[in-house]
Amino acid sequence: MYNGDAAEGETLLQPLRELGEMSTDFSGRMNYCDVQQLFDSLMPAGDFRCYWKARYLTDLTVKMIELAMANALAAPSDNSLSSLWNFGGATAKVAADATAFGDRSMGWMYSLDGVWTDPADDDANIAWSREGWSNSERFGHHGRAYLNFAGHGEDNAALTQTSFGRNYERLVEIKTKYDPQNRFCFNQNIAAEA
């Protein structure tokens, strides 16, 4: 996705469109709401069972690309995704202490999105996501992860603290002041001070 002048974006993307025949081309102009709904038809609410894990990567190396491809081919479900996301640009221009998000120095994110329908396949699909995530650790960015795709909360406290980095202590102070009873806890929870 290019967020800027549409004509400039089309010029920048044109070489990619000329690389060869594409199975899908989303390179046209789209409004923000359409972009947010791109995959809704692939994953209708209530039809799928999902387990996603993602980690930030400092760099995108050939070895990491090979691992992502191998994981994609090994997925137990045809609905699952092994995907690499580019960060940087405007995201990296925000100061680390300006938002809760914190450190924005990662270049990439690797996500394993297990998606399947049959409850009997739960173990195989969850194991696939966890194994791929574990195998990508050596490419990770300071042990940080994208908390929206953090699995089912395993490693929750340590992963949350590492992912928020230097902002974690400030978030604990805010939590203690505004939510000491921890009512907002159905997320990557930050506990209030006792």
Automatic annotation (TrEMBL):
Residues 145-190 form the Berberine/berberine-like domain. One of its GO terms (molecular function) is flavin adenine dinucleotide binding. InterPro entries: BBE. This is Hyothetical protein, probably part of FAD linked oxidase-like protein. It comes from Roseobacter litoralis (strain ATCC 49566 / DSM 6996 / JCM 21268 / NBRC 15278 / OCh 149). The lineage of its organism: Bacteria, Pseudomonadati, Pseudomonadota, Alphaproteobacteria, Rhodobacterales.
